[in-house]
Amino acid sequence: MQRAIAGIKSRWRNFYYRRLGVKLTGYVWMREIEIPRNYGDIELEGGCSLDRGVVLLCSGEPLPHPKIRIGASTYINRHTFIDASLSIAIGRECAIGPGCYITDHDHGLDSDLPPLTQPLISQPTQMGDRVWLGANVTVLKGVTIGQGAVIGAGSVVTKNIPEGAIAVGVPARVIRYKQPLPVPNLVY
Question: What is the mean pLDDT of residues 155-161?
Answer without folding.
Answer: 98
